[in-house]
Amino acid sequence: MTPQPHGFTRKQLLRAALVAAPAPLLLAAVPAASSVPLHPTPMCDDGDDETPPQIEGPYFKPNSPLRTAIATGLPGTALTVSGYVFGTACQPIAGALLDFWQADTNGAYDNVGFRLRGHQFTDATGAYRLTTIVPGLYPGRTRHIHVKVQAPNRPILTTQLYFPGEPRNSTDTLYDPRLLMTVRPGQASFDFVLDVPGVPPTTPPSTPPSTPGGTWAPGVAYAVGAQVTYGGVAYRCLQAHTSMTGWEPPNVPALWQRS
Ligand SMILES: [Fe+2]
């Protein structure tokens, strides 16, 4: 990595800028102390710290619902997990798929339904946000959240996220401190770094890319089978969803198929 002035790496600076971007809005609405962003973790060190993989374990199920909130209505301690998905050049990755699954507050998985499962896509700035509960413990494991992360048209990273200060972290053989989230009451943060080459950004993306034209638009509730065009290409909707910037058809093959 190449330290910047004051010891920051380029990606630390980038993340700080991304987190700081909405600050004027926050400051207008809440006391300053509440707007302090979580300390970024792990640091993106310009190409040498891809997020390590972990085993999938026995409880993954495909076809989770598209949603950013899981464990809705279940007992437990509310938790928001947020962060960014970066490539190895520190570039934010828009439209990256994140598929989360975890145990309930008693350490049990929902292997029949999907109450503790959900997938989402990063927005135009590479950001994601999961609303859930703190997972419980089950025999043999420390506290953790499972996740699969995939940049568009790239291999899947399967890994797990851990909580600091857990007594079982020292005895769980799967535990990896590189996968520790930064946690404070009710909030956790973690930035993923995927094996995706790219060009280091010089400035954080503050505005979405210009629309290349077509009938697709953000904020529209598309049904399965809906037809749109984007950038001169026709697409068919595979899964009902409300569109948003960052979910343009070329970015999210799980939602749109070329037709
Ligand atoms: Fe697990």
UniProtKB/TrEMBL annotation:
Q: Name one GO cellular component term.
A: extracellular region
Recorded GO MF terms: carbohydrate binding; ferric iron binding; hydrolase activity, hydrolyzing O-glycosyl compounds; oxidoreductase activity, acting on single donors with incorporation of molecular oxygen, incorporation of two atoms of oxygen
Start and end residues of each Chitin-binding type-3 domain: 213-259
Query: Which keywords does this chain's UniProt record carry?
Result: Dioxygenase, Hydrolase, Oxidoreductase, Signal
- InterPro entries, from UniProt? CBM5/12, CBM_sf_5/12, Intradiol_dOase_C, Intradiol_dOase_core, Intradiol_RC_Dioxygenase, TAT_signal
| Signal peptide residue numbers | 1-28
Single GO biological process annotation from the record:
carbohydrate metabolic process
Q: Which PROSITE patterns match?
A: TAT
**Domain of life of the native organism:** Bacteria
Family designation = Belongs to the intradiol ring-cleavage dioxygenase family.
- What name does this protein carry? Dioxygenase
Q: What organism, scientifically named, is this protein from? A: Dactylosporangium sucinum
